[in-house]
Amino acid sequence: MKKSLQMILMWTAIVAASCSTDNNDFMGEWGFQPEPDNMMPGQNNDGSASIGDLTSFDIVLNTTALTESETIPSDDEDYIENNSFANRIEIVYDESTATVNGSADGVEVSVNGAHVTVNSTVKCTYVLSGKSSDGSFKLYSEKKYSVVLGGLYLTNPTGAAINSQSGKRGYYVLADGTTNTLTDGTSYTIPDNEDMKGTLFSEGEILFSGNGTLNVEGNCKAGICSDDYILLRPGNNIYVKVTQGHGVKSNDGVMIRGGVLNIETSGTAAKGIKTDGFVDISGGRTTILTSGDGEYDSDDNDVSGSAGVKCDSTFTMNGGELYIKSTGKGGKGVSSDQTITVNDGTIKVITTGKAYTYGSLDSKSKGIKADGDLSINGGAIAVRTTGGEGSEGIESKGTLTINAGTVEVYAYDDGINAKAAISITGGYVFSYATNNDGIDSNGNLNISGGTVIACGTTQPEDGFDCDQHTFTITGGTVIGIGGGTSLPSSSTCTQPVAVVGASNLNTGTYLTLKDSSNTLMAFKVPRSYQSYTLLLSTPSMKKGNSYTLAVGATVSGGTDFDGYVTGATISGGTALATLNLSNMVTSVNYNTKGGGGR
Q: Prior bond to 460 cis, omega within 30?
């Protein structure tokens, strides 16, 4: 119980910090709307809660600037502050022409209308400004370079607006107080032996800095694309809207250390952030909306759906905010081919699409999915997946571990699922499934700490399900309700567990557990059951003692998280069962066919 209260206090602090932002007057032609308060879905402004918040929170684009601090490591070449560029050339676009100011030994600039091509053998800074609806900036450089966007509106009808054919580091500075817009064409004219994969494309690293605004529109391929990696920093304010390809695409990785990033994709199987490498988020606010359906790949004989974030390597979150809404068939929130690790920060995901099918193949909507292990060590996660069969909230194809943080899931299919095993050692976990199991492990299920609430649907689905594998409870406050449950093992449990079968329970009714003088727990049921199985375990329960399980109590005050209430005034209620804990696992009115039993 003490650990549960600590989680509540920690989350209150997180919420307060996440709402500290500065306003940004930029709305412009892109038509942004401010995002609703980013509070935990299970917590209302007055400190009370209901599952209704988890079912109704929304995600919209938000360009409001953040106030963030930044420590610049002195030995990291990815920061422009650790580099010097003695040469400087300014290029001013004026519709059908471009004017070049300045020169440098080793830099050759050619101009064809408003299409500018640079060949450089030295380090140089290029300052781009002005406007052209038929222009571009193309760079060949043997050395590192910087590009300052100082109020640039550039459209290239036949390719990328900015095209760097240099494999060296490229520092893209969004000049303070400026708005910049880059747009590509609906088709590309690409020279032989060259790549051009997006509106802003680079063969080398794309390293953003500065406090300006960048809008990128992709009509043919990706919005921002690097054949190396991409870095965002505090102060950046970037919006990417694409109709065909991915929003932000890289070969090696994407690092978000701060700033504001908004992405919209509408193409089939398009990803907001797509990388063949890793994704590492440690700051900023990233909001991604995807609406495209899945597609069939004839080369791989496979199907894939859209996704907010898709990485072929690892996904790691150490801070910041990530908001994803995917509405297409087969759409996912976060998907990693390897491991997912969340150490801190806020993640909110909504998926609404049904499964995308092609013949016998399908891509199912998921909130957060790892093909390897998935670990949650802190932060706050809220997931809602409502698209039908296969729409699971959080899934690991390996082992899923929750050590700390706040995890809330509302899913059509399994709320939380793992192929190998599930281990919960701490944190606050609420998992609700409308048509399947609350928490489902295809291997062992171990709970040793935290507050864990699992709500499944009616028979044959469960609150907790681990098939015929070992279910162990050695600590924590545990509540499971559903048509049935997997039985904890009396030989491995060290904390008493009660399993009760009953019938006729209405939405909003409070279940309370009391000893002779104290209320050990109070929980408001989020759905109605004709018959159900209830699993209860808390550190306050002692083997050999007796407890009363009651229904229909009046509960006022206190702190309510998804129906689990602490510090409240509780009165009344009708006794449902007397629990005499003579064994480590005690069953009352539990059987394998009815009355809530498996």
A: yes
Which residues lie below 8 Å from residue 9, measured CB to CB, with a gap of 6+?
Answer: none
Question: What span, in angstroms and rounded, lies between the C-alpha atoms of 54 and 346?
Answer: 15
Which residues touch 298 (CB under 8 Å, ≥6 apart)?
none
Q: State how beta strands 124-132 and 145-155 pair.
A: parallel
Could you give the CA distance from residue 25 to residue 508 in angstroms, rounded to a whole number? 43
pLDDT tens-digit map of 433-465: 999 999 999 999 999 999 999 999 988 899 999
For residue 192, name the pLDDT band (cuts at 50, 70, 90).
confident
Mean pLDDT, range 112-131, rounded to an integer:
98
**Choice among 2-11, 283-292, 455-464, 578-587 with the minimum mean pLDDT:** 2-11
Residue 144 to residues 102, 249, 261, 264, 306: CA-CA distances in angstroms?
Answer: 19, 21, 25, 31, 34
Residue 82 and residue 75 in contact, taking contact as beta carbons nearer than 8 Å: yes
Beta bridge partners of 132: 154
Neighbour count for residue 348 (Cβ, 10 Å): 25
Closest by Cα among 136, 140, 143, 191 to 169: 143
SS3 label, residue 362: strand
Structure tokens belonging to residue 367: 């909130």
